[in-house]
Amino acid sequence: GTPAAKSKKLVTLNIDGYDVTVPEGTSIMRAAAELGISVPKLCATDSMDAFGSCRLCLVEIEGRNGTPASCTTPVMPGIKVHTQSPNVQQIRRGVMELYASDHPVPGLTDAANGDSQLQTMAARVGLREIRYQPVADHVRQYGADGTANPDWRPVDESNPYFTFDSSKCIVCSLCVRACEDVQGTFALTIEGRGFDSRVSAGVSEDNFLSSDCVSCGACVQVCPTGSLQEKSIAEMGLPDRSVITTCAYCGVGCSFKAE
Ligand code: FES
C-alpha cells in the first residue's frame, strides 16, 4: 500500500459500504487495506511516499467528479468511496490494456503465466484481450519505415547481478525512487517525456556498470514489470521458496531475498 500516517487525529469514511477510522493523512488505498480491500496497484509501496504514476488504483468518490488515484488521495471525513464500481473497473482494464499492448511478454493476459506484478494485476483487473497491435521488436528498433530509432536500447546486461530491459518498462519511477530513498544513491534518472520517457543510468555510456550503481538491488526488488530482473532468476527461474532477510554488509538495512 502506502506508508502509515502518524497523525493522532482520526478520520472516519466509508469504503465499499464499510466504515473505517484511520489517522488523518492516511491514503484511501491504505484505509481500504485496513478493511481487507486490496486496490489494484503497480507503483505504490509501504516504504515510499506514493507517486501516483501508474493510474491503476483509481477509485470513485460519491458526489465528486473524476477518478482520483487512491494511493495519493488522503482520506476525508464522511466521504463514500467505491473501489470496484463498474466505471473504475472499466478504466483500470483500459489502463492495463495500454500497458499490455506495449509490453513484449507473451501471455500477459494469461493469469497462469504471472511472473511479474504487471501480469498479476492484468489478471486481477480482468484483462482478457488486447485490442491494440503490439509494437514488434524490429519496429521498436528501426521504426515502421526501417529508420533506426534513436531511443531504442538493447537489454543492459552490464551489471553482474541484474539486467534491465527498457522495452518492458512502464516508467513508473519506483526504481529511481528506491535508488534515492532506500540506498541514497542517484544512479538512475528518467529521461524524456511522455511516450518517449525512459529510465536511464544517466551517464553517456547509458549502462548500470558505468553509473553510480552499487548493486544493492533495491531497484530490482520494487520493479513491478520484470524490466529489472536478477540474472539468477533469468537463468534459473523463480525460486520455489524464499526468506526475507537483512544484509549486514553496509548497515543501510536493505532487505533482500535469499533463496
Ligand atoms: Fe496509485 Fe500507481 S498505485 S497510481
Automatic annotation (TrEMBL):
It comes from the Bacteria. Residues 160-191, 204-233 form the 4Fe-4S ferredoxin-type domain. Keywords: 2Fe-2S, 4Fe-4S, Iron, Iron-sulfur, Metal-binding, Oxidoreductase, Repeat. One of its GO terms (molecular function) is formate dehydrogenase (NAD+) activity. Residues 9-87 form the 2Fe-2S ferredoxin-type domain. Belongs to the complex I 75 kDa subunit family. This is Formate dehydrogenase subunit alpha. The lineage of its organism: Bacteria, Pseudomonadati, Pseudomonadota, Alphaproteobacteria, Rhodobacterales. The chain holds residues 12 to 270 of 958 of the full protein.
